[in-house]
Amino acid sequence: MSQYNLDEASFDLHPDLKDRTVNQFIINDNGPSDFSFVISRAENFAETTVDAFAEHLAGELRKALPKFELVNKRALLVDGSAAVELHYTWRNGDSEMHQRQVAVFVRAASEEGTKALLLTGTSHGAFKDEWNTAFETMLGSMRLHAPVPAAGQADQES
User: Fold this and answer.
1) How would DSSP label each residue in 91-156?
2) Which of 6-10, 31-35, 112-116 has the lowest average pLDDT?
3) Is residue 10 situated within a structural domain?
4) What is the CA radius of gyration of the chain?
5) Which residues constitute the domain of residue 43?
6) CATH number for the domain that contains residue 87
7) Which residue among 5, 34, 60, 131 is buried most deeply as judged by most CB within 10 Å?
């Protein structure tokens, strides 16, 4: 068993259990928020680079989200690790949703290999300057506990 840590506690986690934790940060307790920030995780994927992972993710989003449109894709670093941001829009009923989603690989805790950390900012309508700044600030202040260095991405491809 491995030690699993939360902000509030730690415990021994059975090795067969997978972490599907989602961290959600919102503005309003009731009704839709102008902006939210969600951290989720993905495991058991075939892609060996974060760029290939992001391409696959964009394809899945295109199939799942009504009127999906990829606005921009860019490479960046999160705490020195290679990352890719997808900025896209889609329809939720009458609302146009805007999302900025960053994928970065981190080392998996229980086994060799990697998992993807997905950092997603969501806005009803276009991102206001305030929320773009908040998203960039959170990315810039992020410290990965088990990073996969950007140089390691090239090693994984060969």
Assistant:
1) EETTEEEEEEEEEEEEE-SSSSSEEEEEEEEEEESSPPHHHHHHHHHHHHH---SSB--HHHHHHH
2) 6-10
3) no
4) 16
5) 19-157
6) 3.40.1000.10
7) 131
